[in-house]
């Protein structure tokens, strides 16, 4: 004898009327265990993050270099976003460089050289402006980009709890040297009398 298939209405009728929905109620012990597990998991994550930061930035010179790489990368990415990345000096192009590559002087030099490399293009794109206006407008754009990148980099380093000591000193020295180099560019383009 063949059994006919069950239809939707027959299936509904088969549900027990006295069945109660299953409720997920934790017992007090389970809640306590869950809280302990969450707390220990958070502690383990915090310790892991601390170990990663110490491995990356602890240990003197190498850590300083990595922090300067972050500073450089953030500043250059904001400049590139503003002006275009065609001639950008990217972190891939600077891998494996000499020991003093990330010194404040060399880092500032690369940032300024990278930024000023866009000046001729900027002049062509703004040929209706006079030279003084071109220089001032270009420096305004570059300075805002550098400020933004520097701010983002220091926020990252501060968030990692490493923006102090030699890392902070190097970052501040780099920023000061950038300002000096941009002022020298302005003076070279517009002359000493106008710069004052």
TrEMBL record:
**Family matches, as Gene3D superfamilies:** 1.10.132.90
Region (Disordered) location:
1-45
- Compositional bias (Basic and acidic residues) spans? 17-35
Q: Where is the DUF5610 domain?
A: 66-185
Instruction: Indicate the segments annotated as coiled coil, or none if absent.
Output: none
High-level lineage: Bacteria, Pseudomonadati, Pseudomonadota, Gammaproteobacteria, Aeromonadales
The source's superkingdom equals Bacteria
* Protein's name in the database: DUF5610 domain-containing protein
């Amino acid at each position: 004898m063949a059994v006919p298939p069950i239809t939707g209405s027959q299936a509904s009728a088969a549900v027990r009327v006295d069945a109660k929905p299953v409720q997920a109620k934790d017992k007090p012990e389970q809640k306590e265990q869950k809280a302990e597990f969450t707390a220990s998991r958070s502690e383990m994550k915090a310790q892991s993050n601390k170990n990663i930061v110490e491995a990356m930035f602890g240990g003197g010179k190498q850590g300083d270099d990595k922090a300067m790489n972050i500073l450089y990368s953030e500043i250059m990415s904001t400049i590139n976003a503003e002006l275009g990345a065609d001639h950008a000096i990217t972190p891939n192009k600077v891998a494996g460089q000499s020991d003093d590559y990330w010194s404040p002087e060399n880092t500032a030099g690369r940032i300024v050289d990278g930024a000023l490399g866009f000046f001729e293009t900027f002049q062509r794109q703004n040929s209706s402006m006079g030279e003084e206006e071109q220089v001032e407008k270009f420096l305004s754009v570059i300075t805002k980009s550098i400020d933004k990148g520097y701010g983002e980099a220091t926020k990252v380093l501060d968030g990692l709890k490493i923006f102090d000591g030699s890392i902070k000193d190097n970052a501040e020295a780099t920023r000061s040297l950038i300002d000096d180099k941009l002022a020298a560019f302005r003076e070279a383009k517009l002359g000493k009398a106008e710069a004052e």
